[in-house]
Write a structure and sequence with these properties.
The chain contains five helices and no strands. By secondary structure, it is mainly alpha-helical. The chain has one domain: 434 Repressor (Amino-terminal Domain). The protein is globular.
């Protein structure tokens, strides 16, 4: 699992939503989250990272593991 997946999962848990629901609400592929979880993917496209960060009210740097909250 990647740092990005762990951060997304934690943020989802805090909001009491599933990663699948996050994807549906943002209009992004569920496969992105699945690939992050499985370690097949280690990063996100800038637009996807921005959408997720904005949704949770965190910085892109935090989401990507470059900053502490």
């Amino acid at each position: 699992m990647s740092t990005i997946y762990n951060r997304i999962h934690t943020l989802c848990t805090q909001r009491n939503i599933t990663p699948s629901k996050l994807c549906t609400e943002l209009g992004i592929s569920r496969g992105i989250i699945t690939d992050l979880k499985a370690g097949r993917k280690k990063d996100l496209a800038a637009t996807t990272a921005y959408k997720i960060a904005k949704y949770f009210g965190v910085s892109v740097g935090y989401l990507l593991g470059y900053e502490d909250k």
